[in-house]
Amino acid sequence: WKQRKSTVDGVTVHEFGRATLGGLKLPTPFKRWLANLPKPAVFHLHTKFVPMNFALMRALRKHDISYVFTPHNPYSGDTLKRKGLLKRFYTNVVDRRLIAGAKAVHALTNNEVATLSALGARTVSVVPNTIDEPADRTIKPRSEREAGRICYIGRLEILQKGLDRMIAVISHLVNIDHLDVRLHLVGPGIDSQQQAIRALCQKHSLVIGKDILLEGPILGDGKYEFIRSSIVYLQLSRWEGLSLSILEAMAVGTPVVVTDVVPIRLQQGAHIGGTRVPNTDDEAAIREAVVAIKYLLGLNDVQFMQVAQGAQHCYEANYGSSVVAKALEQLYLG
After folding, report:
1. Among 90, 219, 260, 302, which one is most buried in terms of CB atoms within 10 A?
2. How far apart are CA 126 and CA 145, in angstroms?
3. How far is CA 319 from the centre of its chain?
4. What are phi and psi of 173, to 5 degrees?
5. Residues 173-195: tens digit of each pLDDT
6. CB neighbours (10 Å) of residue 67?
7. pLDDT grade for 115, boundaries at 50, 70 and 90
8. To which H or E segment does residue 257 belong?
9. Kind of pairing, strands 4-8 and 11-15?
10. Are 251 and 229 in contact (CB under 8 A)?
11. In the 8-state DSSP scheme, what is residue 203?
12. pLDDT of residue 79
């Protein structure tokens, strides 16, 4: 394998071939390139549970090159406790060394700071993720959206994403309040998950294909158009990192109803783009989600547009690509 160099969107990309021995042996062309790399330089290592990061850390340390480390996925104590024994061992033995050796550790939310500091991070900088932003940022008026459409986008993981809670909310809206609403579940789901969703619908007297629709994955511009045409984006997660699907909804001006465990800013000054409800499994939390959705359903065009613009403003002020790029630049230079 020979080193390859190309330019993508104005960015120089180097390719060196694959690491071997499970990622622990770096490609020879990369090691040669690293030895001759002009200083100063900063690397950015991503993800956790990746052995190649350990090999990269050792190579960077050998050449006195600093690095920033982003351990993706929620890196909070409560979330790590849900991981398997092997991953918890890996975190405490391997990732701990990566974290301690980093120039700075990049957290996606404030929820991760305490755990990362306890694992030895010298500096923890909170910079949120951003999304692959849509070219069309137009906000649809309420009258041009599909009446009664409530959507969720993501994995069909019932426990984490709170799909059982969401189905209970729709049941209340349909069977008690007699409203013409539908929950569209957009995303990949294995057979067992879909069967569990069908069982929940039967329990709550809801009809698949009428009250709850399993849409499968929708990608690219089609996904944004689907969100833009919905009245509400609903996600009642029990635990959550920085959910990109919620950011996608806010980016195109669709109001969101989420649990208070979701670390996303929904208010910026006078701009309000959604509602938080308690992250609990009691009937009171279900009722709060119902009230929040009924409020949005009852707005006229002018009132709805104010909330939709609030959602988009909160996204652009806190999670827009230019905001995140500037924060990351400061992270590298600091």
Report:
1. 90
2. 35
3. 11
4. -65, -40
5. 999 999 999 999 999 988 999 99
6. 19
7. confident
8. strand 256-259
9. antiparallel
10. no
11. H
12. 57
Contact at 8 Å (CB) between 201 and 212? yes
Decide if 183 contacts 234 (C-beta within 8 A). Answer: yes
Written as six digits, the tokens of 192 are 């067992």
Sheet strands side by side (includes 66-70) = 42-46, 66-70, 104-107, 124-126
CB 162 within 8 A of CB 239: no
Output the pTM of the full model.
0.86
Task: Decide if pLDDT at 32 tops 80.
Answer: yes
What pLDDT score does 82 carry?
57
Question: What does the pLDDT look like over 152-173, one tens digit per residue?
Answer: 999 999 999 999 999 999 999 9
Q: Which one-letter DSSP state was computed for residue 264?
A: -
- Beta strand 124-126 with 4-8 is unpaired
| Range list of H helices, the chain | 28-35, 51-62, 77-81, 85-90, 96-101, 113-118, 158-161, 163-171, 191-203, 220-228, 244-251, 283-297, 301-318, 321-333
| Higher local confidence (pLDDT), 81 or 180 | 180
Compute the chain's Rg from CA coordinates. 22
